[in-house]
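Dear colleague,

Following up on yesterday's call, I've attached the two folding results inline so they're easy to grep. Please treat them as preliminary; we haven't cross-checked anything against experimental data yet. The first protein's sequence and C-alpha cells come first.
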Amino acid sequence: MARIRQGDEVIVIAGKDKGRRGTVVRVYTDQRVLVESVNIARKHQKPNPNAGVPGGIIEKEMPLDISNVMLFNPTTQKGDRVGYRHLEDGRKVRYFKSNNEVLDS
C-alpha cells in the first residue's frame, strides 16, 4: 500500500515549486509522482507532419521525486506525514499522524 496514491492532494516541500499544491495524476514505479500543474518544463519539439504534431516550444509537466511531496491535510491546511493502521473490521487504512484522522473511508 502506497503512502501517496493517484488522486491525492499533495503539497511540494522542496525544489523550485516549494509550497504549491496539486493533485497526483500518476505514480511511477521508480518512486516519482506526476503532480497536476507543478514542475512545468519547457520542451522544444520538432514538428511531425505524419502524426499531426506542430513544432515549437511546449510546456509539459515533469515528475517529481516522491520524497519532495507531502500529503495535504485539509484540517490543518499543511502537509502531513502518513501512517498505516488496521481497523477492527480488518481493513488497512492510511491516517494523518498529526491528528490521527483516517484518510481512507
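Below is the second protein, in the same order (sequence, then structure):
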Amino acid sequence: MQKIRKGDTVVVTAGSDKGKRGTVLRVLVDSGKVLVEGVNRVKKHQRPNPIKGQTGGIIDKEMPLSISNVMLLNPATGKGDRVGFKFLAAQGTTPARKVRFFKSNGEVVDV
C-alpha cells in the first residue's frame, strides 16, 4: 500500500512549482515518481507522425515529480500533511482494514 495514490490531491513541497496543488494522474512505482495534473509542465518539440495521426509542433506536457516532493492535502487544514497507516478494527463479518490517516489530526483518509 502506498501513501500517495492515483486521484489524490497533493501539494508540491519543493522545486520551481512549490506550493502548487494538483491531482495525481499516475504513480510510477518503479522510479518513485508521480505525475501531477498542471504541475512541472514542460514544452516538447514534437515531430509529426502521420501513421499515428500526430501533428507536429510545440506541446505542453506534465513531467513526473519525485514522490518525496509532494504531500497529501489535508482538507481540514488546507495544507500538506504527513500520512501514516493503521488498522481499523473488524466489525461483525468485515475483517480489519489497513487505512491511511493524517498524522496531524488522526483523521482517516480512506473511507
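For the second protein, one point worth flagging: Residues 9-49+56-102 form a domain with the SH3 type barrels. fold (CATH 2.30.30.30).

Best wishes,
A.L.
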